[in-house]
Request: fold
Amino acid sequence: MRAARVTRTDGPRALEVAAVPEPVAGPGEVLIEVHAAGVNFPDLLLTQDKYQYKPELPFVLGGELAGVVREAPEGSGFSPGDRVAASSTIGAFAELAAVPAHNVFPLPDAVGFAAGACLPMNYLTMVFALVVRGQLQRGETVLVHGAAGGIGTATIQLAKAMGARVISVVSTPEKAEFVKSAGSDEAVLTAGFKDEVRALTGGGGVDVVVDPVGGDRFTDSLRSLGPFGRLLVIGFTAGEIPTVKVNRLLLNNIDVRGVGWGAYAGPRPGYSRTLWDRLLPYLESGQVDPPIAATFPLAEAGEAVARLDARQVLGKVVVEPAKASDGLSG
Reply:
């Protein structure tokens, strides 16, 4: 089969697409014919040896996918021919992937494979973030940083589906228009966002801040919270891990809460399926429909990942291993 592998950590354009042996499903694993694979920020970091998980070289890149079951173990709930989505730390940028059954999820017929490949990482993270860690309630207000990216658009769609008001923080007017088209009620530019948010909330602040960016905006995010507000730490795409003076939390009765879906779900097989079941009604109603910025054939997987490094992606980038234009034979 064909796969995009990291053979050296010189960045995304060093990815090598070549014929490799097909994976063999181990005990409890589902073998999936991959129709689409989502591209995520950890994929970029893995090509640069900047991610906390460091698999042995060479390895097949890609952490989420959608496709059709080829083989499934007895008792898994899956059968050959089933449409599924799945999460896996690596291995998705290939024509076949073997994934533990507890990380495989039924994909509704109304959801295409490209959209399905955008769901496991970002949308399960944000179900965990908003429902479990953020305890978001109908009528509350959510402020989301990095709103034009994959985590951001997942936040917008899920928060709106849960009955919240959404204010997005973006870097350009173009991104502001994009996030509004994705469902955000308002959008403000990064420079001076704190004052804009205060004005939009009548001085009361927001209930929840979703922050996948980190960096120097963290303190102003805390200042944007109202009483009993919760700041959800999702990641640090800005590169800098911020610090917090805890007296701010005490004086303003606010929380900073870490969100580690993978860290929590990993040792609890079956937990991610419970989150997926929370997501399913939103998929079936059409309230969740991931915006896709671009799709790439497997031969251009390096370019697909490099798009994230440029910070210009609106929505999600997808690799499609089945595209005929790859020009390679396995």
Summary: The domain at 122-262 is CATH 3.40.50.720 (Rossmann fold). The two ends are 5 Å apart (CA to CA). Residues 271-285 form the longest helix (15 residues).
